[in-house]
Amino acid sequence: MQFNRKYKSKNFRPRADEEVQFLVLHYTALPLGTTLGIFTNNYDLCKQDIELGYYANGGFNAEEACKGEVSAHYVNSEQGEIFQLVDEEFASYHAGASYWNGVKNINNHSIGIEHENIGFDWLSKFPNDRALQVFGSPNKWCKFTEIQIEQTIRLCREIIASHGIKPFNIVGHSDIACGRKSDPGAAFPWRQLAAAGIGMWYDLKESTLNDETKPVDPVLWVQRRLAEYGYDCPITGVADDKFTNTLQAFQMHFRPTKIDGQVDLESLQILDSLCQRKARYEEQASMNAELAAQAALYDAVVDEDDTEENANSGSKLSFRC
Ligand SMILES: [Zn+2]
User: Fold this and answer.
1) In angstroms, rounded to a whole number, what is the distance separating the alpha carbons of residues 271 and 230?
2) Number of structural domains in the chain
3) Residue 125 belongs to domain with CATH number
4) Shortest CA distance to 165 belongs to which of 123, 112, 227?
5) How far is the CA of 222 from the centre of ligand 1 (A)?
6) In this structure, are 67 and 123 located in the same domain?
7) Are 107 and 91 in contact (CB under 8 A)?
8) Which pLDDT score, from 0 to 100, does residue 302 have?
């Protein structure tokens, strides 16, 4: 793939021996120039957006933001131009306090891709022709552009192949920092990505849960399944704010038409299917590892038979014949 490498971030660190296990997708909530300015600590790159009046309402100080230590490996613009700001061998600073599948501090173990997208209408510069209304959300969300998503699919495929990232470890920022982050938001086309082989999806037919068979304590059941799938979800049986935020993040990823954070039958069925698929994937992976180990053992035995001594004795034998 072709990248624009004109802008480089200095906000990164060596990964040590930590391998890349996760791919995290974001939206910037800011226009492209300001995003690049913040990630490269270059205030000049924000000036055009300031002149366009993006921050006229106050509440956002681009100059201060450019003094921070944030970055991402890639920024994908609305035109589908991909900027590489940090090399993949280094950890960039895109996730902050985070958790997924037993791992804290996801920066050390991940690649981060940002998408130029305003999120919801906090800058009063919302493109109304791309507004998406979602049940359970007070905001309209901004749809991503087609070329942008096509480019993301290409980029994700390359990253997944080069690091061997598992489908359930392809997540949104909101999945790994529930309640604190809402990107890439309800307009992000996770289903389209899954159809292109990126990340997980579900099939409601795989779940046997219905109104009669649903669990007696649905909150406890959902907490167990959210934790099993990867979320930071304490198993308390109580539908507190932490639980509602986590369920909402899950819904935003897998059922973005209704993200009210309430337990309902469809959420149970989706979770049921996803957890079954994750378990099957892991079972298959461990079978494959076992087969690979057996094959390696077989190769080692064959190699031993091919030692020079054995090879010479073999030739003597053939001479005699
Ligand atoms: Zn983010």
Assistant:
1) 11
2) 2
3) 3.40.80.10
4) 112
5) 25
6) yes
7) yes
8) 72
- Tell me the CA–centroid distance for residue 286 and ligand 1, in Å: 32
- pTM of this structure: 0.91
CA 291 to chain centre: 29
The mean pLDDT of 31-43, rounded to a whole number, is: 98
pLDDT in the model for residue 115: 98
Task: Check: CB of residue 201 under 8 Å from CB of residue 263.
Answer: no
The alpha carbon of 203 and the centre of ligand 1 are apart by a number of angstroms equal to 28
Q: What residue numbers bound the domain in which 15 lies? A: 1-201
How far apart are the C-alpha atoms of 32 and 227, rounded to whole Å?
Answer: 35
| d(CA 238, ligand 1 centre) in Å | 28
Same domain for 126 and 113: yes
The DSSP code for 35 is: H
Distance 119 CA to ligand 1 centre (A): 11
pLDDT digit string (tens) for 260-305?
Answer: 999 999 999 999 999 999 999 999 998 998 998 898 888 877 776 6
Closest CA to 253 of 162, 169, 164, 127: 169
Pairing state of beta strands 170-172 and 22-27?
A: parallel
Are 36 and 68 contacting, i.e. CB atoms less than 8 angstroms apart?
A: no
Distance (angstroms) between ligand 1 centre and the Cα of 75 equals 11
**What is the spatial distance between Cα 135 and Cα 97, in angstroms, rounded to a whole number?**
28
CATH number at residue 218: 1.10.101.10
Q: Ligand 1: distance of its center to the CA of 73 in Å? A: 12
Measured in Å, residue 249 CA sits from the centre of ligand 1 at: 13
How much distance in Å is there from the Cα of 91 to the middle of ligand 1? 15
- Cα(185) to ligand 1 centroid in Å equals 10
Q: How far is the CA of 27 from the centre of ligand 1 (A)?
A: 6
Tell me how far the alpha carbon of residue 217 lies from the centroid of ligand 1, in angstroms. Answer: 33
